[in-house]
Amino acid sequence: MVRFIASMTILSFFLCTCVSAQEAESVHWLSFEQLEDSLAVQPKKVFIDFYTDWCVYCRKMDRVVFTKAEVIELLNEEYYAVRFNAESDAVVSFSGRQLINDQIGQSRTPLHQVAQLLALRDGQFTAPSLVILDETFSIRSRHFEYLDSKRLLKALR
């Protein structure tokens, strides 16, 4: 029995260590619904990565920037991070509103209302679009281009 308990304790420790290591190796991306719940419990800065499926630089940020330990640590500790496909057909419930992609079927690159509200520059969307909000959900900065890890860390600090 003692041997079984010792084995279970070691197994539990190993599993917890593996889970903790895996969590630290990636950004904890939230949906907008999860973001709203999290903000209600604890206000925190928000980072939103607006991407599209066709965007080469968006995929490069996923591979090169969002895998850097320093970027992961800063986003996970100081921000609520959201990834959102700007051309999504999802219905997003946020702040008592239902936001949709009302351009589907009308445009070759239909832009979701969430992206229209937060990620336009001069009425145009460019992917990737990165939006940084303060604790009161006010826009602190927006970036309409690929940012390497050094430039992203500077923007986040």
Question: In words, what does this structure look like?
Answer:
This protein has 157 residues and is an alpha/beta fold. It has a single domain (27-156), classed as Glutaredoxin (3-Layer(aba) Sandwich), CATH 3.40.30.10. It has 6 helices and 9 strands; from the N terminus they run H-E-H-E-H-H-E-E-E-H-E-E-E-E-H. The strands form 3 sheets. Strands 1-3-2-8-9 form a 5-stranded mixed sheet. Strands 4-5 form a two-stranded antiparallel sheet. Strand 8 (129-133) and strand 9 (139-143) form a beta hairpin. Helix 4 (69-78) runs parallel beside helix 6. The protein is globular and about 40 Å long. The relative contact order is 0.17. Residues 4-22 have low confidence and may be disordered.
CATH-assigned homologous superfamily: Glutaredoxin
Percent strand equals: 15-25%
| Estimated radius of gyration | 19 Å
According to DSSP, the number of beta strands is 9
Helix and strand content put the structural class at alpha/beta
Secondary structure: helix percent: 40-55%
Task: Provide the succession of SSEs.
Answer: HEHEHHEEEHEEEEH
Using the 3D structure, state the CATH architecture: 3-Layer(aba) Sandwich
**Cα end-to-end separation:** 52 Å
The CATH topology is what? Answer: Glutaredoxin
Return the average pLDDT rounded to an integer. 88
Oligomer: single chain
The number of helical segments is: 6
Q: Identify the CATH class.
A: Alpha Beta
